[in-house]
Structures are given as structure tokens and as C-alpha cells.
Amino acid sequence: MSARGLSLRHCSRPTLVARDYGFMGDRNRCLLKAESEKGSELRLLSGRVLSPLGPTGGIWFAIRRPMRISVRQLKEYPLYLRPFFWSQKRRYGQILHPGLLWARVPKLFAAVAVLYGVLDRRRSPLNPVLRSLVTVRVSQINWCRFCVDINSSTLLDRCGSMEKVERLDHWRDSDLFDAKERTVLEYTEAITYSDQQVTDELVGRLRRFFDEDSIVELTGLIAFQNLSSKFNSALDVPPQGFCKPRPAQETPQRASRSA
Questions:
Q1: CA trace torsion 233, 234, 237, 241 (10° rounding)
Q2: What is the span of the domain harbouring residue 19?
Q3: Tens of pLDDT along 14-37?
Q4: CATH number of the domain encompassing residue 73
């Protein structure tokens, strides 16, 4: 098996379980850590794309490095920020590393948190799946391991399957994405890649699906995700083990997904 096709249900040895280290087969797949059934950590080799470890059937691993900036003890952060951390722990089961980094400058953290809350609000004119497609694609382009991990998990929850998660980096060659999604992804790439530019023709195609306020919001979401993913990538924020595909028996049947 190549690294590109890995998911939890593809693991050939039942003694391996997924945790929170970085699987970087194509730099944008789910991010995994493997441990033996005894709980001892397997030896991780350095490098961005790695060779299989022994007889693991083609499972690939990436080393987990310390972040370039350390986080503080929770008690060292201002009291007024702690509800944000508690909210993260309730929602995700753990406090997010980027939040602890942003919070080293409390006013900056508060500003970023408010902006994210507006862009991800329930009454956004952009549907949840579309928002997740944007955030994952920007994260892939900017090599943000943490962002790919957490945003792929959200996309998986919103789509109900791994299909779009696995095909997103090759969306142009896939029939999984409709015309609206393809136009949004093209716009996302035109903004994110430094060697591309947004054209009048592309914005004209966006107008078929969105009014002007919605285009502003879409542009703001893409710009915010670029800010977030470049921040995390620059500081080498690791994945936290969110993208864990559902077992095969829990995955909806293909027919029901396409209904």
C-alpha cells in the first residue's frame, strides 16, 4: 500500500492504533501517530515523507518536532482568556496549540477569536461543507499540518465520508465536486498561490452562485485561513489527532451518501 491511500480502516495490523502524530504521505492526508498494543511509542524517522517502518504494510510516519515557540502554563494566561480555552476543551477534547500561541499576545488572540467566530457562524451565507473545503484546501497549499488535521476532521463530519477529504488536492480531476464547489476552489487557489491572480472572468463565474456580500465573506474566509495556516506553519504547530476516519462499518453506504 502506498502512503497516499492510508486511512484507519486500511491499517493492516490490528496492533496499531491512530493517535496524534503527523502522517505526511502527500502532505495533506490525515495525520496519525502509531503505537504498539503495549503502548510504547514506535521509533519515528526524520523526514517529510518517510519509508515504511518494518512489516507495517506500507504505513508511513513523520517525526513530531517541538514547536518553534513554546506555550505557557495555563495559569500564566490572563483570567479573561481561560473561558476560550475551556470552550475549546469542551468542543475538541483538548486545548488547541495555536490558541495557546496566539494568547501569548492576549489582545491579538481576542481579535483572531472574534474574527473566526464571525466567519464560522451558523448564519453564514456559505454552507458548512463549502467553508470546510476552503479551509482544508488553503491548509494543504500552505503546508499547515495542524490545519489539515483539524479542518479535515470537520470536513469529514460535515460530509459524512472521506471521499472529498481524500480527493480535495486533486479536485480538478474528480467528479465529486459540483460546479459551485469547483468555482470556489478555483477562487481559493487563485488567492492563495502567490503565482496566481484573481481575474474578472473568475469573479464573474462566482456571481452565478453568490451575491456581493457573500463574495466578500468568502474572500474574508480564504484570507483568514491563509493567516491562520501560515501562522501555524511558520511556528511548526503539530497536528493534534483530530482526523480519524470512521471505521468501515460506521461509514454510510455510498448509495445513501449520493442520495
A1: 10
A2: 1-64
A3: 223 333 333 333 333 343 433 333
A4: 1.20.1290.10
Q: Which parts of the chain fold into alpha helices (H)?
A: 82-92, 97-102, 106-119, 128-141, 145-159, 163-167, 179-192, 200-206, 212-234, 254-258
- Give 22 or 148, the one with higher predicted confidence: 148
The residue whose grid cell reads 451565507 is 125
The answer to whether residues 171 and 214 belong to one domain is yes
Q: Which residues have CB under 8 Å from 194's CB, separation 6+?
A: none
Are the CB atoms for 26 and 4 separated by under 8 Å?
A: yes
Q: How far apart, in Å, are the Cα atoms of 159 and each of 119, 162, 174, 178?
A: 19, 8, 16, 14
Identify whether residues 224 and 204 lie together within a single domain.
yes
Do residue 57 and residue 71 come from a single domain?
no
Which of 36, 62, 215, 221 is closest to 139 using CA atoms?
A: 221
- pLDDT tens, position by position, 186-229: 999 999 999 999 999 999 999 999 999 999 999 999 999 999 99
Same domain, 26 and 92: no
Q: Are residues 54 and 104 in the same domain?
A: no
Three-state secondary structure readout of 118-171: HHCCCCCCCCHHHHHHHHHHHHHHCCCHHHHHHHHHHHHHHHCCCHHHHHHHHH
Is the domain of 52 the same as that of 79? no
User: Domain boundary at 64, 80, 113, which?
Assistant: 64
